[in-house]
Structure formats: C-alpha cells, structure tokens
Amino acid sequence: MNPSEPRNTETLSSKMMDVIDVLAMQREKRSSLQKSITMDYTSSNDSFTVARFIFECGMKLEAHPLTVATAATLYHRFIRESTAKAYDHYLIAATCLYLAAKIKDDLLKIRDVMNVASNTLHRGSQPLELGDQYWSIRDAIVQAELLVMRMLKFHVNPVHPHKYLLHYLRSLQAWFGEDEWSKYPVAKTSMALLQDFHHVPAILDYPPNLIAIACINLTLQIYGVVVPLMDECDQLPWFNVFCKDLTREKLWEIMEKIMSSYDQEPETRDAL
C-alpha cells in the first residue's frame, strides 16, 4: 500500500477480503435465485430490503440493469425526501420500478409489474384477477407515480455512474492491453459492485463519476491489479487522469461505503 493512503487502509484491506467472500456468496446465491427465493419481505421495510425487492422484481421482469438502478435511485431519493412512515414502501418500490421502465424505455406493462410485485411480496399468491383488488392496486400505483414525481420535483432521470464506468473501463482496457486485461474480471466485478451499491441510500451521497472510479479501484484492490504506465505519469494515481481533484482520502471513503453496504445483507447481519 502507498504510505500516503489513510491510516485505516489495513482495516479496509481486511474488509476487502470479506468483500471477496461476500461477492462469491452473492454469485452463488444469484445463480440459484430463480430456483428458490424465500426471503420474507413482509417482515421488514428498511431501505436495503426494499431495494432488494426492487432488484428481485426487476430480475423476474427481465428489466434492463439501468432500469433497476434507476428504480432503486428513485426509491432512495423519495424516502429521503419524505416522511417514510407515511407510505407503503413496497407500493413506492413497485411504482419506482414502473416509472423507471418508462424513463428508460424499458417496455414493462403495469399489469406485469403488479403481478410480479404481488407474488414477490406474497409468496405463492395467484396472478391478480380483473376485479376490485386489481383495479385498486393499479389505481394506487398510478397515484403513487404522480406522488413520486411531485416529491422529486419531476427530476426523475438521474445521471448514473454507469456511463462513467463504461468510459473509464474502456480507457483502462487500452492501457492494460487485451491479453493482460482478460486475466482479471475487472469490468464484470466493477459493474457488480456498482449495482450492489444501489441497495443503500449512500448511492445518493457522491457524484456519479466518483462512484464509478471507486468501484473500479475497489476491484483493482481486490484482485491486486496495478494499473500500467503510471510510472510515466510522475506517480500520478490512475484515477487523477479522469478526475484531477479526487483525493485518496475521498476515494477510500467511497470505497468503504461500498464495502459497508454488504453488511446489510441478511446473511452478513446474522453473522455479525
């Protein structure tokens, strides 16, 4: 580690080893997600659990990852702006997913969103029939959609870190060269970290370009990868090429926030 990095790097390094284990667990869990999902969402409505509900519904609906990330962002923004106890979190979550699909031109029908959300919240329930309950839920989503847009002052198309991540990864790939780049799953892991960071409200606390850099740098740290050609840049850290004002302290702060988000996993919480 560079001696100019913060004093808590040793703690963060040990925590990164935990993240490697968590990522492995996540991959295994996601591979079996479609076969068996038993999480009981009715027992909790904290922000992480509701965001996970959004991700599960998005996966079942085969929504684009950017649609799901938008939905999670809208949900966190709404809850931050509102009196959370006054609203049904899962209704807002389903509404944010439906609204995000519109924003990102992801063709999700409101009936499909309703049925998937209902079945995910109430395991084993039958598809909603065209009756009073169906029209009541549909009307609730339509009204909640207007509420979300008003609460967010109609600024419902956030600037995502994804486009920055893609740009930075393409540049790094050119620096590494194809053979060296293919040795490590930098792009895949960086994207996984970014998507997972959308489970927590901290995704709102930092500029999108800095979040993208933090996801990449965390991935490089996890796999022990050193960015080439930096010796020719007077020891300038690779991330300062993209953001000259970004300090190591701020970068490690964001990285720690990303790693801390994994502590919210039920399996992780139970182990603490």
TrEMBL record:
GO terms for biological process: regulation of transcription by RNA polymerase II. GO terms for molecular function: cyclin-dependent protein serine/threonine kinase regulator activity. SMART domains: CYCLIN. Residues 52-150 form the Cyclin-like domain. Keywords: Cyclin. Belongs to the cyclin family. Cyclin-like FAM58 subfamily. PANTHER family: CYCLIN. This is Cyclin-Q.
